[in-house]
């Protein structure tokens, strides 16, 4: 996790300002930055569109406690069987399921790892005992675990969906703990959501005030001018970028940018010269043809 934090310090995003057509640089945050938590909340803020007045079915899915030696294998089992469980749930309910799921691992009293998924189904009322029984049997069959817990929250309690979900999504973000370490080990995601719900809350354009930006790519410090001429960047954005690196590295990058700019200018000059020669040759050939026609 600490290595991840150090690596993320050298990662940035490129955006195109749709008005000025200049490239804007944005810092890539790591999940332990306070700003990252804010960013995650912004990404999920579309849940606020859902608002109040929905039933919630909160299902906690757990696999048996694991030793340190096999926790990654158990994590992969948990994520794989979670997908199987969701397919089965959809078949039972015979409808689309709007959900957000979050992963968490804690340490049990005996020192072993306690891995589980919080499945928050939005708009799902109280489940009949038969459905609960079938889901419990299914979870035990596919994971050999009897640990599954159902918590129904009635819409009459007027729960706000957004803060309820965010309570589970963000509690692992800001700490280097067991969950984050395991997620880094397997490149796992802290949360997922149904495609339908994701489409519901997604925003098609990135807007900040009256400005619109188009995402280009992500890059590391040393690659800022790789394929991008310095003239393409917004000057203020470059100034912002250079505050994150040493003066020595800044000097080196600017020197490389200057060399690249000179090489680009040289190529452009060569291309212009070649085009000029081609035009001269074309005109010469055209005049020769005209003269030949006149002679005939």
From TrEMBL:
Residues 247-285 form a coiled coil. Residues 59-172 form the Replication-associated protein ORF2/G2P domain. It comes from the Bacteria. Keywords: Coiled coil. Pfam families: REP_ORF2-G2P (PF23343). This is Replication-associated protein ORF2/G2P domain-containing protein.
